[in-house]
What does this fold into?
Amino acid sequence: MAGMTRDYTNTPGRRKRKHKDRHVKGTNGSMGAALLLLKSFVGTGVLFLPKAYLNGGMLFSNLCFVVDGSFGDIGGVLYGNWMRTTILLSIVISQLGFVAAYIVFTSENLQAFILAVSHCKTSIEVQWLILMQMVVFLPFSLLRDISKLGFTALIADAFILIGLLYLYYYDILTLVRHGVADIVNFNPRDWVLFIGTAIFTFEGIGLIIPIQESMKNPKKFPPVLGGVMIIITVVFISMGALSYAAYGSVTETVVILNLPQDDKLVNGVQFIYSLAILLSTPLQIFPAIRITENELFTRSRKYNPYIRWQKIIFHFFVVMLCAGIAWLGANGLDKFVALVGSFACVPLVYMFQPNHEFFVFTNGYSPFRNGDAIHE
It folds into this structure.
């Protein structure tokens, strides 16, 4: 297929050879893939949704919550390398945005946690917490097999489940005690912010193909993905609607901040959810590093130590870039999230996929041959 193979450039003492498949052989089972998918999709976005519902209005937000997705090499087969490059660039930008938002979210929540437990005697600036996280993520950026992040994903899934269950409990308790807050069905002033945040919530879209490739039997992936998508859609809509109904016009950018900050249990939930997002960040940065690495480096590091060091430096650079973006976006997290969702994720969700399907339908052409799926 055009654009799918390349030759390595000549190296001293070696003959020119054809590009070899650099995908790591899959080791994940269906359960491992499901846990990775849940972790990739359920992160910070679900906590931004109540404020997004405030921006869009209850009825409008529920009606708009429908999403689809698409990936790179299908576009490359249908339209050529320019489309493939455009789609992969969108995936990279979106993942870098997700990682930056994760870093800001963790920093702000850890700052609030430290203030709460120290009774406002100790405060660490968000910028310092961003730098601390960057140091933690540097070694994780060197991992080349996404299945190795399965253990951290399992811990993060458990922490997020605890946090979401407590949020459901407190939302329902608030509704029982105080009734439905001052909600509107449509917000004509800020509804655009809802669109960007809602798209951002499906933050695992760039990880679907890497997770499929990590499986021992990738043919089992479609039902796993279908089940996970049903679960996360129910979680997203219920969390957004319940929290907005409970807090109305005073809904915070991160809904955890609507809980009483002097409550030790709330502080504990805040802390473990921050840890969950911290553990999730290496998973989100994986597609951005892999895609750009495969495009920039045409020679394998196995045959050239110089290339190995170039790749290590590049991995570190991507982590530092994400930290830099987080630093710049730290003062307006809700607007930053909406910008990432609108600029990088809307093309992936609403433009590329329908365009591919229209091309295939009108031309009677299938980008899959001999039952082989196209990889990034």
Summary: The mean pLDDT is 78. The chain has 13 helices and no strands. Residues 81-117 form the longest helix (37 residues). The two ends are 13 Å apart (CA to CA).
